[in-house]
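Lecture 7 notes: from sequence to structure.
We start with the chain below.
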Amino acid sequence: MIGKAPNELAEDAVTVKTAVVIKPLLVNVAQVGAMLGGISERQIQRWVSSSKFPKPVDLHCRITRWRVVDVKAWIEGLDTQ
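Predicted structure tokens for the same chain:
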């Protein structure tokens, strides 16, 4: 690579791009519905009210989120029933 500009690569050089994937720890009701295959927000609220689904975390007035691990554990629990 002598005599080449720093931004030029040799023909046999390999370029590796790395991507950082950030997975959310908390999801809103629409995201939970999507995780469950399109279940409506109202149905999720009914399940929470009847203790059939994990309760959300209250972050602030009128802002609730579910822990992704809780939702995934609930889904895995369906497979064992």
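Points to note: The chain has a mean pLDDT of 86. Residues 26-80 form one domain.
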